[in-house]
Design goal:
Elements lengths: L9 E6 L7 E8 L5 E11 L5 H12 L3 H14 L3 H19 E11 L4 H12 L4 E8 L14 E8 L10 E2 L3 H7 L2 E7 L5 E7 L6 E2 L3 E3 L19 H11 L5 E4 L6 H8 L3 E4 L4 H14 L14 H10 L1 H11 L3 E2 L13 E5 L7 E8 L6 H13 L4 E6 L5 H8 L3 E3 L5 E3 L1 E5 H6 L33
Parallel strand pairs: 1-4, 1-12, 5-11, 12-13, 16-17, 17-20
Antiparallel strand pairs: 2-3, 4-6, 5-6, 7-10, 8-9, 14-15, 15-16, 18-19
Helix pairs in contact: 1-2, 1-3, 2-3, 2-4, 3-4, 6-7, 7-8, 9-10, 11-12
Length: 473
């Protein structure tokens, strides 16, 4: 943010950061038949510890110019000590200061949280924004199965709403009247009055303004059902209706929306749908690839830029050297494959990704992906992929490599023969693909698919209104 987003350029910020709930959240991909598969990938680790990084960030807080935040964080540290919660709040305070810097004076921020840390986060937000700029503690109420046995079941999240200043944009929203009110008064406006004896009585006029009642700070919206077509498989996915309500309340068409913890991209999806400009930020290449796919599926004509992912061979090699798992997840996205097994060492059996396809209108079929980001690749690695394809009864195997394959590797792949598709064509059973070739478009995976990728990933539904993402600044 410090490098790419200038001061006072954002109209609305929504963030759904990790809650410090000591949980590892997984993206759970499903097989085409709908059963849970083994392809669970760790989306993010929602656990924070007081360590050297936390100490460094805390020192940064004490030196920045907002002395209210500095003093408040030191008081919290004296109260909480050097523990996981303090590490979490330190991380959040530094990021909230950056978000405050980026907001226009007419801007607002909505922070989505739960009771794990919401009370502490409100103290931090009071320091960053000033307690006078607190607007609402919004309760998002939903129904789900009761599971608690020693306390009341929690069926709500908290959204803390702060304005940058008194000039912040706000559009009053209305919600439908209750059925009993509609039956009694219809869409007429109800104004309180008093009769001759001083008793309050309703005075009825036509309500040409809204046909509803002003929205309160308790929002009854359902969570996304497991069977819903909206659900894409991301563990903390929020419903579009929730984000559309926030965006409609605190922005106008053409405004810039920022989500700095983008997850699966619900906020940017809602922003695009409502004709806003948007910026989404996430630290995992898995999340970025899911967001790219979601937006392209929902808005086929959209144009947007992705920064921070490899664009050429040098960038890919740098990512492979820095983080082998992020490289594997990113490489899988180049061939539209589900990543497989995440960081479970030794459990993948040589499999880094999966593609499901259908070429006969019957049962889905499978392609296994093996990704190699090292400088040394060999014929044995190709042979291992062949064995994995046979062992898992897959039809094809893709060997995706940063380094160009050698002649013995090509010979080993050729020896595997072909997959003869019922659709009438034959395809090499083992295909060698280079990262450079995939990036330039000179190479691509070859296989038939009547489902057009729909068996590998759930597709977001196409939105009727499609607009282009313009240059932001």
């Amino acid at each position: 943010m410090r490098e790419h987003i200038r001061d006072e350029t954002i109209d609305l910020i929504y963030l759904d950061p990790p809650f410090n709930s000591s949980a590892n959240y997984n993206v759970l991909f499903k097989s085409p038949q709908g059963q849970n598969s083994d392809a669970q990938i760790e989306a993010f680790e929602d656990t924070w510890h007081w360590n050297e990084q936390a100490e460094r960030e805390f020192g940064e807080l004490t030196r920045q110019p907002n002395t209210d935040v500095s003093e408040m964080m030191q008081a919290l540290r004296r109260f909480l000590g050097e523990n996981d919660m303090m590490a979490y709040l330190t991380m959040m305070a530094n990021r909230l200061l950056e978000l405050h810097r980026a907001l226009k004076p007419t801007g607002s921020l909505y922070l989505h949280c739960d009771p794990t840390a919401s009370h502490y986060l409100k103290i931090v937000l009071d320091g960053v924004f000033g307690k006078e700029n607190f607007r609402n503690e919004i309760i998002w109420s939903y129904k789900k199965w009761a599971v608690a046995e020693t306390k009341f079941s929690r069926n709500h999240d908290v959204i803390l709403f702060y304005a940058k200043s008194n000039s912040a944009q706000f559009n009053i929203l209305f919600q439908p009247r209750a059925a009993s009110t509609l039956k009694r008064f219809g869409n007429k406006k109800i104004v309180s009055g008093h009769d001759d004896e001083g008793k309050r009585t309703p005075s009825i006029t036509l309500d040409e303004e809204s046909g509803g009642v002003k929205m309160s700070d308790v929002w009854e919206l359902p969570i996304i059902a497991p069977s819903s077509s909206e659900r894409l498989g991301y563990p903390t996915q929020k419903p579009l209706a929730l984000l559309e309500r926030i965006i409609n309340a605190s922005s106008n068409e053409g405004d810039i929306i920022l989500d700095p913890f983008c997850g699966c991209g619900t906020a940017v999806h809602a922003a695009q749908k409502l004709k806003r400009q948007w910026i989404g930020i996430d630290i995992t290449h898995l999340a970025v690839s899911l967001i790219e796919k979601r937006i392209k599926d929902a808005f086929p004509s959209v144009h947007f830029e992705v920064h921070g992912t490899p664009k050429d061979f040098a960038g890919a090699r740098d990512l492979a050297e820095r983080d082998k798992y992020q490289f594997q997840w990113w490489a899988c996205s180049l061939v539209n494959a589900q990543p497989y097994q995440g960081k479970k060492k030794g459990a993948d059996g040589g499999i880094d990704g999966l593609i499901y396809f259908n070429d006969d209108g019957k049962l889905p079929k499978k392609i296994i992906i093996s990704v190699k980001g090292g400088e040394h690749v060999s014929r044995t690695m190709v042979a291992d992929l062949k064995n994995a394809v046979d062992r898992d009864k897959a039809q094809l195997g893709l060997f995706v490599t940063l380094t160009k394959p050698t002649r013995p590797m090509k010979d080993e792949a050729s020896a595997a023969g072909f997959y003869d598709s019922p659709a009438g064509s034959s395809f090499p059973k083992i295909q060698l693909l280079t990262i450079e070739g995939l990036l330039t478009g000179s190479e691509q995976a070859r296989y038939p698919d009547l489902a057009r990728g729909g068996l590998t990933f759930k597709k977001a539904k196409i939105e009727e209104k499609m607009v282009d993402q313009k240059n932001l600044f």
